[in-house]
Specification:
The complex is a heterodimer of chains A (394) and B (231). With 394 residues, chain A is of the alpha+beta class. Chain A is built from 12 helices and 12 strands. In chain B, strand 9 and strand 10 form a beta hairpin. The model of chain B has no long low-confidence stretch (mean pLDDT 90). Classes of the chains: A alpha+beta (394), B alpha/beta (231).
C-alpha cells in the first residue's frame, strides 16, 4: 500500500471517531437517509421541548406555591387547623405564640401574616394581592431576591415591597410611588425580582404590625407562627409536643408544609395533572416518531441485518446497532431541544410565567429522552429478531 | 480429512400430501483445497444444500458434520458462532453494506468477531490489496463495478480465514470476462489458501474452474465428477 493512500485513509478513517463497528454502522444508517434522520431529530426535539416546558412549568409552579415557606427560614410552622396551603389560611391568637415558646426545644417563635387584599391602581380598578407581614427584627418571612431598596425601609408605617414582575400589573412605576391597599395608603420602598405567585395575587411585603393594620386584624392576631429550634432539638419531637400543647392548630415541619402547599395547588386543582399529562403526551409523541423512523430505517437495511445474521453475528450485535441509532437520535435531539428550552426559559424570565429548569430536571429530561428513543427502538429490534438469515440467498 | 460431511440428509418442506423434498438422502463429503461446483436446474436443491452446509438450515433428516463434529445438537447461538469462526459466505447480490466503504465492509465482519479495532483496518487493507482492490478501499459499493463488488465480498468472506467458503451464484450478476475472473479467483483461493470452496452456479463459464462438479436434480446428486484442475 502506498504512503499517500495510507495517509488518505487516516484522514477519512471514521473508526477513529467511533468506538466500534456498531457505532459506525448506526451512524451511517442514520446519516445515509438525511431526510428521514431530520424527521427523527425533529420528533425528538419536539418531544424534548414539550416535556421540558411542561415539566419546567410544573417545577416552576411547585416552587411558587411553596416559595414563601422555603424562604421563611423557619424549622416548624404553626398554622390554623385545616390549613391546606400557605396562601389561604385563617387566623391564630397571639397567645399561642407564648404557649409555643414554653415547649422544650423551641428557641424562637415569630408571627407571620398572610392575607389577601385589594390593591387600587392609579389608573382605576383593583388587583388582588397577598399581603405578607413579617417580624422586621428577626427577618423571618422577609422578602428575598431584593434588587432595589432595603428591608429596613419597611420600618416606616406605610412602606411596602413588591416584585418587579408585577409592577405594571399593580400600576407601580418606581420607588416612592404611593397607592392604596385595602383603602389605606401604601408607599413602595423596594422591589424584589422573580417572586412569582401561583395564585397570581402578587406578594406585598410589609411589617407584621403594618399588615395587621392593612388587613384590619386586631393586634393580638396573626396567621402563622414560625418556630425555630434550639440546637440539637429533634424537629419531629418538638412538632409533636407543639401539637399536644397548642391543640386546635396544625404543626408542620417546614419541608412538609412546602410539600403540602405544592400538592394542594398542583394536584387538588388539577394544574399539575394537566402539566404532567402534556409532558406524557410529549413522551408518547416522541416514542411514536422515533419508533416509526427507526423502523423504516431498519426495514431499509433488512438485507444487511440478514447478511450479518448469516455471517454469524450474535443477536446482541444487531441490537447494539439499533439501540445506538436510538441513542444517537436521543443525544442529538436532546442537545438541540435543550437549546430550545434554554431559549424558552430566557424568554419567560421577564414574565410572570414560572418556568424552572434546574440541573436535576435537565438530567431527568435526558434520561426520559434516552428511554423514549430506546422504547422507539423496540419494534425495530423485534423485526430484526424475526429475520431469517437464509433470506440472503433469495 | 473432510471439511464437511453430509450423511443421508433430507430437507422436506410442508407435510402430508404437500410434502416436498428439497434434498433427498444426500450424502456428501467436502474436501479442503478443492473447489466444488454445485450445478443443476432451478429448484434442484443447490441453494438448500449450500444452506445446510453453511449451518444456516437444519436438515429434516440425516446428519451434518463440519470439521468432523456433528452440529445436530448446536443451539442457534452456537451455530452462529460456528459460522462466524469457520465459514465464509459470498452472495449473488454481494450484500455489501451500501453505507460503508469497501474496507469498512470487511472491518465490520472483523468487528463482529471481536478483532481489536486497531487491527481491523490493517487486515481489511491487506485483503483488498491481495485481491487487487487496494486503490478502491475508500470507495463505497455504489462507486465500484460488479466485479469489484464481488471481490470485496470475497475479501469479506476471507477476512476471518475460514476453512469453508460457500458462494451462491457469485458470477450471476457479472459479465462474461468478469465472471470468469471471479471464478478463477475462487479456484485460486481454494488451492492457495487450502480452504474448501463450494460454489452454486448456473453459469457454464464457471464449470471449467471446478475441481469437482456435482449435478443435482430433484434434490438428489445425479452426477459427481472430479477433475484435475490444479495446473
Amino acid at each position: 500500500m502506498d504512503a499517500s493512500f495510507r495517509h488518505n485513509l487516516a484522514v477519512i478513517d471514521p473508526l477513529s471517531l467511533f468506538r466500534n463497528g456498531t457505532s459506525l454502522l448506526a451512524w451511517r444508517n442514520l446519516a445515509h437517509d438525511r431526510a428521514r434522520f431530520v424527521v427523527t431529530l425533529v420528533g425528538v426535539v419536539f418531544a424534548v421541548l414539550l416535556m421540558g416546558v411542561e415539566l419546567g412549568l410544573l417545577v416552576g409552579f411547585a416552587r411558587t406555591t411553596s416559595g414563601l415557606v422555603e424562604h421563611a427560614g423557619a424549622d416548624l410552622w404553626v398554622t390554623p387547623l385545616g390549613t391546606t396551603n400557605v396562601d389561604i389560611a385563617g387566623r391564630l391568637d397571639e397567645r399561642r405564640r407564648y404557649e409555643a415558646l414554653a415547649v422544650p426545644g423551641v428557641a424562637s417563635v415569630d408571627k407571620l401574616m398572610a392575607q389577601f387584599g385589594f390593591w387600587k391602581k392609579p389608573s382605576g380598578g383593583t388587583e388582588s394581592v397577598s399581603v405578607i407581614g413579617f417580624n422586621l427584627a428577626t427577618g423571618k418571612g422577609a422578602p428575598w431576591n431584593l434588587v432595589e431598596g432595603s428591608v429596613a425601609d419597611l420600618q416606616q408605617d406605610d412602606a411596602v415591597i413588591i416584585d418587579k414582575l408585577y409592577a405594571d400589573k399593580l400600576g407601580v412605576k418606581g420607588m416612592g410611588d404611593t397607592l392604596e391597599l385595602n383603602g389605606r395608603r401604601v408607599r413602595v420602598v423596594g422591589f424584589t425580582d422573580g417572586l412569582r405567585t401561583f395564585t397570581q395575587s402578587p406578594y406585598v411585603f410589609t411589617t407584621h404590625s403594618n399588615a395587621l393594620h392593612l388587613a384590619g386584624f386586631a393586634d393580638d392576631l396573626t396567621t402563622y407562627l414560625l418556630v425555630n429550634l434550639k440546637p440539637g432539638a429533634d424537629p419531629e419531637t418538638v412538632r409533636t409536643a407543639l401539637k399536644e400543647r397548642l391543640g386546635q392548630v396544625d404543626v408542620w415541619q417546614a419541608d412538609a408544609f412546602a410539600l403540602q402547599a405544592q400538592k394542594y395547588w398542583l394536584i387538588t386543582t388539577g394544574a399539575g395533572s394537566a402539566l404532567l399529562l402534556a409532558a406524557a403526551l410529549g413522551l408518547i409523541v416522541g416514542i411514536v416518531i422515533v419508533g416509526q423512523t427507526l423502523y423504516a430505517t431498519t426495514v431499509d437495511r433488512l438485507p444487511e441485518y440478514a447478511t450479518l445474521r448469516a455471517i454469524g453475528a450474535a443477536n446482541a450485535y444487531l441490537y447494539k446497532v439499533i439501540l445506538k441509532q436510538a441513542v444517537i437520535s436521543a443525544v442529538l435531539g436532546f442537545s438541540i431541544g435543550l437549546v430550545g428550552i434554554v431559549a424558552v426559559v430566557a424568554l419567560t424570565q421577564r414574565s410572570n410565567i414560572s418556568l424552572a429548569m434546574p440541573l436535576w430536571l435537565i438530567g431527568v429530561l435526558g434520561v426520559l429522552t434516552l428511554l423514549m428513543c430506546a422504547f422507539g427502538a423496540v419494534i425495530s429490534i423485534r423485526r430484526v429478531i424475526s429475520i431469517e438469515p437464509t433470506s440472503v440467498f433469495q | 480429512m473432510t471439511i464437511a460431511h453430509l450423511d443421508k440428509v433430507s430437507v422436506i418442506y410442508g407435510n402430508g400430501l404437500s410434502e416436498l423434498f428439497a434434498l433427498r438422502d444426500v450424502s456428501l463429503s467436502i474436501a479442503p483445497a478443492e473447489m466444488t461446483l454445485l450445478l443443476g436446474p432451478s429448484g434442484s436443491g443447490k441453494t438448500t444444500l449450500l444452506q445446510v452446509l453453511g449451518c444456516l438450515m437444519r436438515p429434516t433428516r440425516g446428519d451434518v458434520s463440519v470439521f468432523e463434529r456433528s452440529v445436530r445438537g448446536y443451539s442457534e447461538r452456537e451455530l452462529a458462532a460456528f459460522r462466524l469462526a469457520h465459514i465464509g459466505f459470498v452472495f449473488q447480490n454481494y450484500h455489501l453494506f451500501p453505507t460503508l466503504r469497501a474496507w469498512e465492509n470487511i472491518a465490520i465482519v472483523l468487528d463482529v468477531q471481536g478483532v481489536p479495532r486497531e487491527e481491523q483496518r490493517d487486515r481489511a487493507m491487506a485483503l483488498l490489496e491481495k485481491l487487487g482492490l487496494g486503490d478502491r478501499a475508500s470507495h463505497y459499493p455504489s462507486e465500484l463495478s460488479g466485479g469489484q463488488k464481488q471481490r470485496v465480498a470475497i475479501a469479506r468472506a476471507l477476512s476471518l480465514s475460514p476453512q469453508l467458503i460457500l458462494a451462491d451464484e457469485p458470477t450471476a450478476a457479472l459479465d462474461g470476462k468478469t465472471g470468469q475472473g471471479v471464478a478463477a479467483l475462487l479456484h485460486d483461493l481454494a488451492h492457495r489458501e487450502g480452504c474448501a470452496v463450494v460454489v452454486v452456479s448456473h453459469d457454464p463459464r464457471v464449470e471449467p474452474f471446478g475441481d469437482r462438479v456435482l449435478h443435482l436434480e430433484d434434490g438428489v446428486i445425479r452426477d459427481d465428477v472430479r477433475r484435475d484442475n490444479r495446473g
